[in-house]
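Morning, I've got a small favour to ask if you have a moment. I owe you a coffee for this, so here goes:
>
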Amino acid sequence: MTVVVVTGLGLVSALGSRDRTWRKLLNQESAIAMAQPFPDLEPRPLALIGDNAGHPWRDRPADLRDLTRQLVLETLEDAGMAPPLPNLGLAIGSSRSAQGSWETIAHQFLTGDRELPDLSHCLDYLPDLPARIAAQLTGTQGIVQAPMNACNTGMWAIAQGYELIRCGRVQQVLAGAIEAPITPLTLAGFTQMGALAKTGCYPFDRHREGLVLGEGGAFLFLESLESAQQRQASIYGQILGAAFTNDAYHVSAPKPDRTSAAIAIKTCLERAGLTPRAIDYIHAHGTSTPLNDAAESQLIEHLFPPTVPVSSTKGATGHTLGASGALGIAFSLMAMKHEILLPCVGLREPEFNLNLVRSTRSQCIQHSLCLSFAFGGNNGAIALVNSPKQ
């Protein structure tokens, strides 16, 4: 079976660009701050990207198009590739995509206080917008996929890219997800659900309040090991296996017994040829909501040795919804490459019996596991290894 490796990595978060995000994450900094991007809604802790140049944060959401272009170009550069790439596969997802643009258009129609917008280009705002932008920038004439699966979108996109290469459909795939989810409707919806925090994001903490929305995403350049070796590319790591299940239980709450989530993890490990004891680090979903953190902790405690290090990075970047799984995989690859365990930023008083990483520390990480859970009962897991298996 074809070995699939990662040879390029692009990342943007409210902490900044890839390298800036990494430095701030290791320094246990958080991009979360009180903001009021919409005057009709009360201030909330949010993780807004700003201008990514180290200037003061701006109090308005980022542009999805700009973020997508930035990630495509950064990932290709990191992989040592340049357009046109006619045979490149794409699996670029977003759970919210251009929702902000549609809300702006709807507001203009409803208020009538501005000139009505030109809708001749309304097709530009369809959910596959990031994938289409990536296709135009790369010049691909190959397979283009635009997955959308709530907070599992990014992990699912990377898994789809992995399968395209494993099945021999393509040799190289640009995969990941991007989100600019801070919109009035999204904020109002999560507020109505009682899911948003009032002061900050504290994953696995006894006093956690809820999630904090964040902007950002991550793209990976995937390719077969043979392709990477032929062009002498630098390798971040290898994808060993992936698995997804569904609770079929509730529109937003996880199934209490976590049986289907456990099946996803066990299946992922089986496909990767690993046992739970082989995992050196778990990048948890860790949303800082009461239900998710409790259910995820119970799941990890049940399946893994108590010594396995666990952390969530959402206390630093906020919850980027559909892009969160892609960011988790990117962070795990960087952690393996630099042999550093990532801190669970925001954690002050742990509630659960997990080996939560309280501060940045060095450790050899050969195998890591990334978890992602989404509304609708969607469960996902991807296993990574630091160096390719021949």
